[in-house]
Amino acid sequence: MRSGRPGPVLIDLPFDVQMAEIEFDPETYSSLPAYKPAATRAQAEKALTMLNESARPLLVAGGGIINADASELLVEFAELTGVPVVPTLMGWGTIPDDHPLMAGMCGLQTSHRYGNATMLASDFVLGIGNRWANRHTGSVEVYTKARKFVHVDIEPTQIGRVFSPDYGIVSDAKAALELFVQVAKEWKAAGKLADRKAWAAECLGRKETMLRKTDFDNVPMKPHRVYQGMVEAFGKDVCYVSTIGLSQIAGAQMLHVYKPRHWINCGQAGPLGWTVPAALGVRAADPSRKIVALSGDYDFQFMIEELAVGAQFVQAALHPHRGEQLLSRPDPSGPARLRDGLLRAAGLREHQHCGRPGSPGLRRGPHQGGRGPGLQGYPRAQPERTGPGHRPRRAADDRVQRTGGDRSDSGARDQHRHGHRD
Predict the structure, then answer these.
(1) How confident is residue 84, by pLDDT bands cut at 50, 70 and 90?
(2) What number of other Cβ atoms are within 10 A of residue 86's Cβ?
(3) How confident is the model over 294-306, as pLDDT tens digits?
(4) pLDDT in tens, 340-352
(5) Which of 128, 204, 317, 384 is such that its CA lies 20 to 30 A from the CA of 285?
C-alpha cells in the first residue's frame, strides 16, 4: 500500500489467522519504512548529460512528484537548468501556473494549445513520476517522433510500459530530484550547463499568445466566461475538485492551479469518482481549505444524497448548482426546488439548520412511513406509489400540506411563479 506507487491492496486473511493470539509489545513496536528505490549519482549525471546536449528540452512533471512532496525540488531544478515544465493532469500544481517556466499541459483533452505546441517543438523530454498515460500522449507515434526520452519512475513496471525511453531510472521522485539538483548546482558553478534563455522565451511567447478565448459577453453567459470569473474571484489559494468528463476537461483547459494538491482529480466513475464525496473528503481532511467543486448534471444527480451527508457530518457549506444546464438555461426556481427536495429527503422542516457549527443540527421530522428508522434514526422517505389513477405527489402538494392552504390555489400560484408545475 505504501511502497512503489501507493494504491489500494486487498488483504485476505483466513479466519484462524484473524482469531489467533500472538505475543506483541505495542510500546516498542515501530513500523518498517516503505521501500523506495533511489537513483544513483551516475544515473543522475547520465540523464543530465542527455538533457544538456539537447537544444529544446522539456521536463514532464507527474503525480509522483506530488506523492513524494518534491514539488519545490522540481521548481528549483527547472530554475537551475532553465528548462520549461509540462505537468500532467495528476501533476498539475507541481509548478505554479503563473511561473515563467510553466509551459502548459499537453494531450488529447485536459491540455492547453500552447502546451501541445511546445511539446511538438521539443527534442528531449525528461519525465519524472509520470506514466505517459494515453490522455497525455495521444498518438504515441506523433508524441515520440524526433525526440529523446528519459523516464524516472518509482515503479519498475512503468518503465517502457507505453513506449521504450532512451534511458530509464527506477527511483522515488524526491530521491532523483535531490540528485538532479545537486548535479545541476555543481555544473552551473563550473559553467557546464547550457543556456536555455532563448528556448524558455519561445515557450513563454506561446503561452502568452495561444490562449483560449474566455471573455465572451453572450447572454446567457457562456461556461468559458464563468471559468474566467472563477479564476478572477477565487485567487490562488482555492482548491478545485473535479469529476470526470466535461467538467474536468473544461476546468483543466481554463482554470489555474498554483499549489500542489490544489487540484483534486476524482478519476474514474464510482463512489470515489464523483465530485461531492471527493469534495467532502477534502473538506474533512483540511477544514480550512477553500474548495470549489466542478460538477456536471449526471455527477451531481447521481450523488445528490451526499449533500445531506456533508451537511450533517462534515459541516460543509454547500452551494449546489446544476452545472452546464444552469449556465446556459438559468432556472430561478431550481435552487428552491432542490432545497425542498433535500429537506424532505433528510426528514427536516424548512426552518431547521443543516449541521453548521453552533446549530442544533439535524432533528427528526414527522414520521413519513417506511419500515423503521433511516440514517441515524431519521425516518425513511415514503415510497412512491404507482398504478392506474394515482397522481404522483408533487413539491407543490408538500408545501400546501405544511401551510394548510388550498391545494388548487397553491398549485395555480406555483404555476404562475415558475411558469410550470414541478
Answers:
(1) very high
(2) 28
(3) 887 777 777 778 8
(4) 555 554 444 444 4
(5) 128
> Is the pLDDT confidence value at 317 over 70?
no
Do 166 and 272 share a structural domain?
no
Q: Which of 209, 236, 252 is the last residue of a domain?
A: 209
Residue 148 host element (H or E):
strand 148-153
Q: What are the phi and psi torsion angles at 267 (to 5°)? A: 90, -140
- How many helices (H) and strands (E) the chain has is answered by 18, 8
- Count CB-CB contacts under 10 A for residue 362: 21
Distance between CA atoms of residues 173 and 164, nearest Å: 19
Q: Which of 183, 209, 235 is the last residue of a domain?
A: 209
CATH number for 234: 3.40.50
Contact 99, 236 (CB under 8 A): no
Measure the CA–CA gap between 414 and 422, rounded to whole angstroms: 9
Please give the residue range of the domain that contains residue 276: 223-377
Q: Read off the pTM.
A: 0.72
List the 85-87 sheet strands across, edge first.
85-87, 57-61, 124-128, 148-153, 167-170
* Complete DSSP assignment for 47-87: HHHHHHH-SSEEEEE-HHHHHTT-HHHHHHHHHHHT--EEE
Q: Which of 245, 230, 262 is nearest to 91 (CA)?
A: 262
- Of the candidates 351, 271, 255, 381, the one whose C-alpha atom is nearest the C-alpha of residue 280 is 271
Residue listed under C-alpha cell 513496536? 29
Confidence band for 180, pLDDT divided at 50, 70 and 90: very high
160 in any annotated domain: yes
User: Which amino acid appears at position 202 of this protein?
Assistant: E
Cis peptide bond N-terminal to 220, omega within 30: yes
Q: Within this chain, do residues 172 and 231 fall inside the same structural domain, yes or no?
A: no
| Domain match, 227 and 161 both | no
CA separation for the pair 256, 99 (Å, rounded):
11
Q: State residue 344's pLDDT score.
A: 53
Please indicate, yes or no, whether residues 253 and 156 belong to a single structural domain of this protein. no
Which grid coordinates belong to 3? 511502497
**Is there a single domain that holds both residue 369 and residue 322?**
yes
The cell for 419 is: 411558469
pLDDT of residue 62: 96
What is the pLDDT, as a whole number, of residue 328?
33
